[in-house]
Amino acid sequence: MQQVKSVAFHTLGCKLNYSETSTLSRMLENEGFEKKEFDGIADVYVINTCSVTDNADKECRQIVRRIQRKSPESLVVVTGCYAQLKPKEIAGIPGVDLVLGAAEKFNLAAHLKELAKGDAAKICSCDIEEVGGFHSSFSITDRTRTFLKVQDGCDYNCSFCTIPMARGRSRSDSIENVLNNAQQLAQNGVKEIVLTGVNLGDFKETGFANDDKKNRRDFFDLIRELDNTSGIERFRISSIEPNLLSNEIVALVAESKKFMPHFHIPLQSGSNKILGSMRRRYKREIYESRVKLIKTLMPHCAIGADVIVGFPGEGDDEFKETFNFLHSLDISYLHVFTYSERDNTNALEIKPIVPMNIRHQRNKTLRNLSYMKMQYFTKLFAGQTRKVLFEGHSKNGMMEGYTDNYIRVAAPYREEWANNIVDWKL
């Protein structure tokens, strides 16, 4: 493997994947690899895949074909959630040399030393039940904002989701290690950390003997410790389930100078019937109570929601219920997902199936609602001065940043504002 000098990465999917790709990249650079852009020529291409989108297979094949055309002698490695779920399918894609499952992802450097072009695709995977241990990771791009993984896996069993099969049981970092990572990032000039995980609110500190698990510190303990650290000016909570968003977490964010007034809380449906079919662990009334508490303590807080449209059994009445519920909620924006069938999930047994054209119509309807909600939320702060963290890169002479409460701001590029927090009149 002496001849391998350069590596390029491509990430599909979530912020968690981006944090892990960034960590894999730094690991290989420490092993002597030179990092290249993915659209250039490299000796090794690594694709970190996602299983949430219904076209993971198609997307992966297209990327591998592109690599084969421009650099047929290069090694192609596929890892991530899709690689754990369907390793044989990926190994069958012409051009793929190595498939790494969840347990082997962070052993990438060792595997590359034993890999040669022309051999049959090698699969290094295992049953997801055997996946244990926690690998901390974080992304550093322009230093402004980083995604720091503090939790992985999920013990929930939502009927539409493959993530527990792709990432394994819930496990977390130690609070001490998270604090050390935060200090390291602060020394690298990072101003904002976004805490990420598969089920972030289920954070339970590792490093305890089995008989002492009841005393493990939880997510509230983690954010309380981070709130008292120096160096990092801003923290955000990427996404937290409504049943895990406790009153004390909301109160801490409301009183904090470091945790930004911004929550992203998955809803998935505004119909209790559909929530039950989805095997979600709450009803809409709990969600509504969380939003009301947040807005009582922080009227200026941004709240985002995830919603799935077209889930089996979602008739016109259930969708109308969801639309009306979202319309009535004092939230700022939506991330709308069209339901797609996933292999080996319980949702496949639920009937009736919603036709694809109706799923797309409903998606468009909720995206329009999201646009209107964000417009309304933004206008509430017109004329106010809020603190904006500007990102360090220029786009056509412009720079972008976010207010504390997640309103995106664009301004003509000024070098002295890059990676700095500026008082900005909206």
Q: So how many helices?
A: 13
CATH level-four homologous superfamily name of one domain: Methylthiotransferase, N-terminal domain
User: Architecture of one domain in CATH?
Assistant: 3-Layer(aba) Sandwich
Strand content: 15-25%
Q: Please give the radius of gyration in angstroms.
A: 22 Å
Mean pLDDT: 92
Q: What's the N-to-C terminus distance? A: 55 Å
CATH topology of one domain: Rossmann fold
Helical content class: 25-40%
- Sheet with the most strands? 6 strands, parallel
**What coarse outline follows from CA principal-axis ratios?**
globular
Q: Stretches where pLDDT falls below 50 for ≥5 residues? A: none
Order of strands in the sheet with most strands: 2-1-3-4-5-6
Quick tags:
426 residues; Rossmann fold; six-stranded parallel β-sheet; four-stranded mixed β-sheet
Descriptive notes:
- The chain is an alpha/beta fold and 426 residues long.
- Among the domains are: 125 residues, Rossmann fold (3-Layer(aba) Sandwich); 110 residues, 2-Layer Sandwich (Transcription Regulator spoIIAA), CATH 3.30.750.210; 41 residues.
- 33% of the residues lie in helices and 20% in strands.
- Strands 2-1-3-4-5-6 form a six-stranded parallel β-sheet, sandwiched between helices. Strands 7-8-11-12 form a four-stranded mixed β-sheet, with helices on both faces. A four-stranded antiparallel β-sheet has the order 18-17-16-19, with no helix packed on it.
- A hairpin with a 6-residue loop joins strand 7 and strand 8.
- The longest helix is centred in the C-terminal third of the chain and has 24 residues.
- The chain is globular.
